[in-house]
Design brief:
Elements lengths: L8 E7 L6 H12 L5 E7 L5 H8 L4 E3 L9 H12 L4 E5 L1 H14 L3 E6 L8 H10 L5 E4 L2 H8 L9 E3 L17 H8 L6 E6 L8 H13 L4 E6 L5 H10 L6 E5 L4 H6 L3 E4 L8 H8 L3 E5 L4 H4 L7 E3 L4 H13 L1 H18 L2 H18 L9
């Protein structure tokens, strides 16, 4: 039964936190972008709220933190059930494994009509118990969303054979948030970051995690500097690998050759100083940072893992290299640095590709279509929200 215009579907996003990260940013953008005439979004963070929560709450989107204890914490189920019943949730949409496990268990107990799971990564760390629980919870899962075809292929081998319930929705970015309007002048950003004014900048933006491959970027930068190129490396982001990367930076003698600037609130400003954007990941789903760099018209070098190849057309919108190969990474960076006109052409092509295929608006509408299709399939009308 289709809901009337006066009714809204209550959507609860469940995730560990809203600290800055790819999946977290996807959740924030989905909650922010939903058609408020049809949906009422809210977010539940199993642990703590995180940096992105402030932005959502400022826009009137409720964010709840449950302070989940480490490892096994059955009490979080009770908290989730109470929240779902109190808010009369129609759709639970979970992100990342821990949230998907507890969120689905609670949704079943609370009697939530629709449960949707998004898989963001090729989680090679998952073991037999993880996939066993996924299979058991599959009977209460109405749809899986995968952020790339590579991610879908990975899970298709490990989830129940229910291809009709699998949907690929590529991540998207808001082009309005990437443009140069009102951004801090690049010269000022360079000064703030401690970047020399006479060198081209090769930059990485993203969380500092081992799977992101930053150590290969550092090794590639050592090679470029040994060649005598007038270049400086930039690493923007925070995470548990900061200390290890700083130690590796020192060991390679890159204290002046690479700047580790940590978290940078203004993404447009950070991208504005980068001449060549690098994503050296060892595994990926469909990275937001890569799409944002392409949307900003940057030439990109990315490893050919996960959904990177679905975003970057090798030789047209960027260059793809094997993962874990600092030599190949350095050579691709060298090619674009030595041929600025080619880099500029790739940047323009990348920007056009994002505009055509990877807009945030398209991603939000696709998620809404999943909610509506699943919800109407239950035969239950949405409850009225006063």
């Amino acid at each position: 039964m289709t809901s009337s215009p006066a009714e809204k579907i209550n959507v609860l996003y469940v995730i560990w936190s809203l600290q800055t990260g790819g999946a977290e940013r996807v959740v924030a953008e989905l909650a922010r972008g939903l058609d408020r005439a049809r949906f009422r979004p809210m977010v539940c963070c199993l642990n703590f709220k995180g940096r992105l929560a402030d932005e959502l709450e400022a826009e009137g989107i409720p964010v709840v933190a449950l302070d989940k204890k480490p490892k096994l914490d059955p009490g979080v189920v009770l908290k989730l059930v109470r929240l779902m019943r109190r808010e009369r949730i129609d759709v639970v949409h979970t992100h990342l494994w821990t949230s998907s496990f507890w969120g689905r268990v609670a949704a079943r107990i609370a009697g939530v009509p629709v449960v949707v799971v998004t898989e963001h990564n090729l989680d090679l760390w998952r073991r037999r118990p993880h996939f066993l629980s996924d299979r058991l919870l599959a009977r209460w899962t109405h749809r899986w969303i995968f952020v790339s075809r590579e991610v879908e292929a990975f899970y298709r081998k490990r989830l129940p054979d229910r291809a009709r319930d699998f949907t690929v929705v590529h991540n998207g970015v808001d082009l309005a948030d990437i443009g140069p309007a009102d951004a801090t002048p690049p010269e000022r950003v360079r000064e703030q970051m401690g970047l020399p004014p006479d060198r081209r900048v090769v930059g990485v933006v993203g969380r500092l995690e081992e799977r992101k491959g930053h150590r290969f970027f550092l090794e590639a930068m050592r090679s470029l500097l040994d060649d005598g190129l007038a270049v400086v490396g930039l690493v923007v982001g925070e995470g548990k690998e900061m200390a290890a990367l700083a130690a590796r930076q020192e060991a390679l003698g890159l204290e002046e050759g690479v700047k580790l600037v940590g978290y940078w609130a203004d993404l447009r400003a950070a991208l504005s100083v980068i001449d060549v954007f690098v994503l050296p990941s060892l595994m990926e789903g469909h990275p937001i940072a890569l799409l944002e760099a392409m949307a900003a018209g940057k030439a990109v070098v990315a490893t050919n893992v996960g959904g990177n190849g679905e975003a970057v057309e090798d030789g047209v919108t960027g260059l793809l290299v094997p993962p874990g190969d600092a030599g190949a990474l350095a050579e691709a960076m060298r090619v674009l640095l030595r041929d600025p006109s080619r880099a500029a052409r790739m940047g323009r092509a990348a920007q056009a590709a994002v505009r055509e295929r990877f807009s945030l608006q398209a991603a939000v509408r696709a998620n809404e279509a999943v909610y509506l299709g699943c919800f109407e399939g239950t035969g239950k009308g949405a409850r009225h929200v006063a």
